[in-house]
Amino acid sequence: MSLKQRFPSDFVWGTATSAYQIEGGASERGRGPSIWDTFSHEPGRIHNGDNGDIACDHYNRVEEDIALMAEMGVDAYRFSISWSRIMTDGTPSTLNQAGIDFYNRVIDACAEYNIEPWVTLYHWDLPDHLERTEQGWLNRQVCDRFADYARVCFEHFGGRVRRWITINEAWVVSILGYGQGVFAPGHTSNSEPYLAAHHLLLAHAQAVDIYRKHYQKEQGGQIGITNNCDWREPLTDSDLDKQAAQRALEFFLGWFADPIYLGDYPETMKAGVGDRLPVISDEDRVLIQGSSDFFGLNHYTTMYAAEAGDEPVEQQVYGNGGLNEDQKIDLSVDPTWSVTDMQWAVVPWGCRKMLQWIANRYSNPEIYITENGCAYDDPIDTSGQINDQSRVDFYESYLEECAKAIELGVNLKGYFAWSFMDNFEWASGYDKRFGLHHVDFKTLKRTPKSSARWFKRMLNE
Ligand code: GAL
Known about the structure:
The chain is α/β, with parallel strands linked by helices. The chain has helices at 19-22, 35-40, 58-72, 83-86, 97-112, 128-134, 141-157, 170-179, 192-219, 239-262, 267-273, 282-288, 324-327, 348-361, 389-407, 450-460; strands spanning 12-16, 76-80, 116-122, 163-168, 222-228, 231-234, 295-298, 302-307, 329-332, 367-372, 412-418, 437-439, 446-448. The mean pLDDT is 96.
């Protein structure tokens, strides 16, 4: 049986991008700055001093890009809307028709090739005005701001968009943006992440409430949230290490998924974080619980987890977000695991275990992997080809494990490869390449890599 045949016939195959990482056109036609514009222009924040001013210039090359996507044979394209492109200062009083027109162009191009648009409302690019004047995600008012923005999107695009993702990776926004300060807005705090996270959940829930009350019936779409989680494997068979791995997953994914599927933050978090963890009021619980039509998962890697020893461990920015005082977990990787250019270990079975954990904990929801992929810097050879065999191996091995998960009863319904093309990889700038298509950042020329052709063959099998 071919790999493709191991997936249901209605399985959704797609690729993904996000606005700030690919669009460029940073101040074209009424777009206001987002916190990522500001952050990336601060000296020392981004590798090599890179920024997203031009990025892949997707703003001017949408049609070319979506034609390349169609060439791969995908069913779906997940992209995000830049909030400050359609509302210069983040509020409906600065509605920007040119911004609306741009996303209509994206949707038109998708329609031309019969590619289903999957639209993320928030992929980290808060309008800078809301950060400067209202303290961004630390002020509950941001939830109403987000709800207003979401309403505008449903109104303008909902006639042709059937799949909405409210927030991408609230964990990253909270931990890397407010805990570690390595992502915008660059705060370092051991309490702000929990407050920002609380508001992200509420903002998501308010947007869903509006969609369900006013648009869902007529527009016939689905709405959900995408969270990220890496797998945590107990380092040993000891009960303490098993509990540590479980606790690590609860702090990572349970933080956001438990309130939505179970109605409250995990007990382990309440115990570990104490009064820095906001309380979900009864009123808010009504909004939050049950607020996702599907389970969006971004998954990249796996680490071992063990009960923290007495020795302070090195803080792991991407591992436990540096909030280890709250979690008491030591993380490590197996030296035999190969790693990508992000130094993230390639552990395909971790993806299957992650899916099974979600299925067990949250009563087997419909899951979509909305991102999975790897960074490798494969050069263009003399014949103009990019032979990214390690990326092909990565996708093949992760998809094998996804197929196994389905065979074991997990309700996995779709898979989006991150990313369609090389792009602005946040604090790493243009140095880390995740694309199925190579981008020459001097000429902006796109070249399909072997992995793009592998996908096409796999999808045609
Ligand atoms: C995710 C993020 C993407 C992409 C990817 C690779 O966390 O949603 O924007 O950058 O990681 O690091």
